[in-house]
Amino acid sequence: GGLGSQLSPPAAASPVAATRAHSRPVVALAAKGAGAGGLPAPPLALTGSSDGTVALWEMAADGLRRTRTLLRSDAAVADVVWHDGGGGGGGAVSSASGCCAAGSTAAGTVRLWDLRLRSAAVCSLEAGRGLADALALSGDALFAA
Fold first, then answer.
1. Residues paired with residue 109 on neighbouring β-strands, in sequence order
2. Given 68, 77, 99, 132, which residue has the most CB atoms within 10 angstroms?
């Protein structure tokens, strides 16, 4: 036989955590390690859902705890990302180095949050439908495609 006959099927994976906090499927997920960027000690996760919400979670050994909802939109969420902690210029992205998250919707709205603050988004951009389906935050820049 060929290579296929030498491979074993993967073992069934067990979920690390499960939640039903969104009313529709989760379509975007981003995780950040413990204590990164001046954020609280537990590891954190962002979820984006086709129900139009972006949620912030603390990850623990016994599961996920939703800490707050960052976005409620009529449009499905397309992507969520964390800032990589790089950069050092003076923009909204770099001033929140390591504490910054972004989310975009299918309608082309991009929101940026400094998670050290309990306030609304620090920046909101209207890129246009289909122009913010994928995001990246790096250094002083926010990239949307």
1. 126
2. 77
Classified as helix, coil or strand, 27 is strand
Distances (CA, A) of 89 to 94, 123, 125, 135: 6, 17, 20, 20
The first and second tokens of residue 135, run together, are 């995001």
CA distance 73 to 94: 26
Q: How far apart are CA 68 and CA 6, in angstroms?
A: 47
Contacts 24+ apart (CB under 8 A), 38-41: 38/98, 38/99, 38/116, 39/98, 39/99, 39/115, 39/116
Give, in order, the Cα–Cα distances in Å from 115 to each of 3, 5, 15, 102: 48, 50, 27, 10
Which of 134, 58, 67, 137 is CA-nearest to residue 95?
A: 137
* pLDDT at residue 106, as a whole number: 81
pTM: 0.71
Average pLDDT score over residue span 52-57: 88
